[in-house]
Amino acid sequence: MTAEATPALVEETGGPATAGPSARGPRARTTTAYLRYVAGKLGGAAVSLLAVLVTSFFLFRLIPGDPVKYMTGGRQVSAAQLANYRREFGLDLPMWQQFTDYCGKALTGDLGTSYQFRAPVMDKVTEALPNTLLLTGTAFVLYTALGIFLGTRSAWRNGGLGDRLNTGLALTLYSIPSFWLGLLLIIVFSVGIGPVPGLFPTGGMESGGEQGFAYVLDVAHHLVLPVVTLVAVEYGQTLLVTRSALLDEMGSDYLTTARAKGLRDDRVRRRHAVPNALLPTVTLIFVNLGRTVAGVILVETVFSWPGLGGLFYQALSVPDLPLVQGLFFIFAAAVIVMNTLADLIYPLLDPRVGR
User: Fold this and answer.
1) Cis bond leading into 319, ω under 30°?
2) Are the C-beta atoms of residues 211 and 195 closer than 8 Å to each other?
């Protein structure tokens, strides 16, 4: 065979010539499809954030109550003083001008000034955010791990006694209102009932006066009941989604092949079935992760926890419009961002997504 014929043969048989443009075509098309997918998701997130911004302004103006009268503390004031208050906070402006001012400032990170605290909304958010992340972040880690673990166990032993007990308990706790369960735990474990003494504080984040390691233990003591409440109510959703997704995978041919190779059941579950069944759970995890920023308003209120949820409830009762609007926007934005992140991670877990 001559040297001149060799390149043609190599190209025919798919040798080094496959590195040419024709070989790069499928990869380039895949990259383009993924970029379009990313652009679509980011565009959808931007539209959702804009819709939340508009909704947060108009929705809370339907709440009955006059924030200016709240600011006077119930004192008798003249009409001129009320007018000065309205002018100070821009409430005397036409609605359309209030809206454009609000949107313009929000896009620069300025969510306004709280009526009741006379402080920037972002300052109040940064002050309460660590407390919320401590509570809901701790609960998130626990109920996610517990839900995935019990969900995989239940699905693998579908129809057994453990499966029936797990799903029954998860459905029962998931249907219980969180504030009702929180009040029940306070009555039993804080106040004490019958032979059960009061073991935990009724509310708050700290007793006061503690420092160093004693302060850490004091905060952990206050953290127990609200975390137990959140874990009990929330873990069932993760369990049920994980269980359902794994049951869908269990009849797949690749699992039969893995068992036929002699792999142990535990290894088949951990290495093959569970990773492929986690896509719906990943979405749920990211949505729940976004909710950790919002906290759980009712639980924080019941346990007097000084976080964003309790702050939102306090602002809603005034109504403190800038604080309510700002918190609502932050809560919704956290969920939208985390949901979008889950969508962007999907193609990395399953290459078929985004093509």
Assistant:
1) yes
2) no
